[in-house]
Amino acid sequence: MSSAADATAMFYQNLQASRLLTDAQLRDLWGWIAHARPDLPAAAREVSRRGWLTPYQIREVARGRGAALKVASRYVLLTVLGEGGMGRVYKAHDTRMGRDVALKVIRRERLTHSVAVVRFEQEVLALSAMDHPNVVKVYDAEEVDGYHFYVMELIDGTDLTKIVREVGPLPVFQACDVIRQAALGLQHAHERGLVHRDIKPSNIIAPRHGGAVKLVDLGLARLMEPPGGADALRITQEGFVIGTPDFVAPEQARNPTAVDIRADIYALGGTLYFALTGLVPYEGATPTEKLLKHCTDPPPDLLSRRADAPPLLEQIVHWCMAKEPDHRPQTPLQLAAALQPFCPTEAPGSEALLAPASGQRVPMVPPEAHPGAAPSPLPAPAPVTQPSIAGPGSQVFKLAPHEHGVSVRRRPRGAFPTGTVLAVLGGLFVFAALGVAVFLAFINTGPTVPKPFTNTAGLKMVRLEGGTFKMGSPEEEPGRADDGREGPVREVTVRGPFFMSSTEVTHGQYVRMMGGAPSRGAALAARGTSLPVDSVTWDEANEFCRKLLEKDRGQAWARNGWAYRLPTEAEWEYACRANTTTPFSCGDAIAFPTQAVFLATGEDPLERAGDVPGKPLRFGTEVGKTKPNDFGLYDMHGNVAEWCSDWFRIDAYKEGADPTGPADGDMRVIRGGSFRDRASGVRSAARDGKRPTDRLDYVGFRVVYAPLQK
Ligand SMILES: Nc1ncnc2c1ncn2[C@@H]1O[C@H](COP(=O)(O)OP(=O)(O)OP(=O)(O)O)[C@@H](O)[C@H]1O
């Protein structure tokens, strides 16, 4: 036999040994080989042409490693998706469930200690209990021949590092939406007591064809901890740090084991910066240099690298990247809410970020379904240096002893809003104090609260001082919903001051801002009336807020770090009640049309004697014509119902300060009832939920202007 024939025969034997093909396929192939007498490459091509094996499998079989492609007698490895510091990720087929999955094999050296193995099993168990659209689903974990692996949902997408490498920095709205979704996934983890510890662009996968952004590798960074735990890892003692030096929070650099969710928020801020600029927050020749900069240098400038980014976005990045955890958003949900005004897409999905297969650049336009959502045309974002792709992967770094006390390069004065960067190292890594000082300075030099004002949309903004109030309705309240959605009554604090528009946004105001309006009352409004805008989706209401913020820029009342947005449900009820505990801000009953516009029938016990219109109203009526409540707010009861920022869930009331509702859901809250509701439906505690994409001719909105860090 020729050597070519030997190689082909060997390949065939390897195929048999691999047990990847059925007996019938093997017989068929042998018949073809006997007839065609191919050399090895031709035989391999034939197997590929028949679609029986992937190129990766054929290569492995040719090397005699085909048997290893079957794992735990259930999974068949199809191809390698990628490899990082922790292990290798394969696309695999789960023969038992009949689906493709992703399978991550952990490097042996990561699990040499029994403690690490237990930790791995604990983390995977915790992960398998997670159920959120923005967190990858974990199905299974096993050990085979000393290799530990876990099996997860296969995402048809690309991680953020690769996306930025391929298409460059993302448009503002896409970058914000990806990070917002990642924050929602993180919130889910946070609510279950998990910390990611290794947030970075490569652990955020964006779908190729739309769908939800997914967080991967949650909690696995713990595998890098040596069994000794915290004490074995303090860089101040031993010189180690876990994580990715490009995104690690200062406190994580100091003590990797004692971090909380705010370290993830820091890393998410850095990742947002990366998505917007293609740059890691701090350049450095070595991991050590980068770590030191995280601990001492001010957060990076965004606006000088992304001229088209709203200034507020830079503040959000800086807020997340505050040196002191107390000065960051305290929950991922807070960050998600802050990014919401910059995200025009329909929550919770996102657009495809990459062209299929070809990897060609695709136009980044917002979905057409959202009029007014398009960002201004993007000047090609011009990073000042070559995009530096986030890397290397997560590692354990060792700082050489002599580096412990090095002084750190500082920015020139004026490069940061505070104008000053304090960076004095006294002894070993006195980083936190510096970070606190820098960020406190940044916050405290912020301007004072503006006086009540009328904004560029013509909305009169009423100053609300905030306070503690009883949210919800007592069981004995007449007209109370009987499904539990209004209670129990809880003590809630709304922090102030902040501003709320005295009226609902009118059709005319909406048209001037957005260039058109979907209101059913458009014909009437065109005749010059001030009907409330209606039929506006929740996304469009947010887009209005975003545009208003832009338009207000430079006005005397505009403040850095403040933004327009929809009210939270708690803010809305606080504002509506105006220090009352009765069903309405005007007492136990309400009169049509002097106190509110609602469906007056003369039959509802909550109706105060008044005019009963001959037939039900078809639209809201001019805003600001009813009697205002004690805070000076009009139409909180009735007229049109108003979108709030929170997701709706029947049992979603939370107590405490500034609650923001559940982390996700299908519906957003509407409040206040409308011209279609009877008196009981326009009470202060009445609440409902609608899909954010719904256009309802009885739903509009009003806006608040509040500090981002309220
Ligand atoms: N569930 C999944 N579905 C599809 N692709 C995935 C999945 N999980 C990871 N990947 C992809 O596999 C590749 C390798 O992932 P991995 O997590 O090993 O990389 P990394 O984050 O750079 O490294 P590490 O976190 O280990 O340092 C990445 O490109 C990632 O996008």
From TrEMBL:
Positions of the Protein kinase domain: 75-343
InterPro entries per the UniProt record, alphabetical: CTDL_fold, Kinase-like_dom_sf, Prot_kinase_dom, Protein_kinase_ATP_BS, SUMF_dom, SUMF_sf
Lineage top rank: taxon: Bacteria
GO molecular function, one term: protein serine/threonine kinase activity
Region (Disordered): 469-488
Xref: CDD domains: STKc_PknB_like
Segments traversing the membrane: 419-443
Name assigned to this protein: Protein kinase domain-containing protein
Organism: Gemmata obscuriglobus
